[in-house]
């Protein structure tokens, strides 16, 4: 005797969000509008993963703004990373922001190497 019924539907696969790795010390980066040399501003990076960066800034960033971050990643070297501002939290002590990395042909490997070094406590 067979049980009649609908076959079980596969569960919907939800994308897994990679956790951010908090830096033991904030790291300085210079952010400039994409494609421009002048008008850069200083930001302090406090957490990263392969696709996202969170930071603090004295200057107000705008959601949707495209920037190029220039920073020295210990163990990796000097890099320029294109990002888009995803969110901004306003504060009188310095604004917090979430940046999404707009990957090019180099950035996935760069960020994976840096995150691997962070996970193994081998960053400078």
Secondary-structure blueprint of this entry?
Blueprint: E1 21-33, E2 41-48, E3 52-57, E4 66-73, E5 77-89, E6 95-101, H1 107-119
Antiparallel strand pairs: 1-2, 1-4, 2-3, 3-6, 4-5, 5-6
Shape: globular
CATH superfamily: predicted glycosyltransferase like domains
CATH topology, which one? Answer: Thrombin, subunit H
What radius of gyration results from the CA coordinates? 19 Å
How helix-rich are the residues, as a percent range? 10-25%
What is the CA-CA span between the terminal residues?
67 Å
Fraction of residues in β-strands: 35-45%
- Assign the structural class, choosing from mainly alpha, mainly beta, alpha/beta, alpha+beta, or little secondary structure: mainly beta
The assigned CATH architecture is Beta Barrel
Text of the CATH class: Mainly Beta
Structure commentary:
The protein is mainly beta. The chain has one domain (23-119): Thrombin, subunit H, CATH 2.40.10. The protein has one helix and six strands. Strands 1-2-3-6-5-4 form a six-stranded antiparallel beta barrel. The termini are far apart. The model has no long low-confidence stretch (mean pLDDT 85).
At a glance:
The chain is mostly beta strands and 124 residues long. Helices cover 10% and strands 44% of the residues.
List keywords for this structure.
124 residues, 44% strand, 1 helix, 10% helix, mainly beta
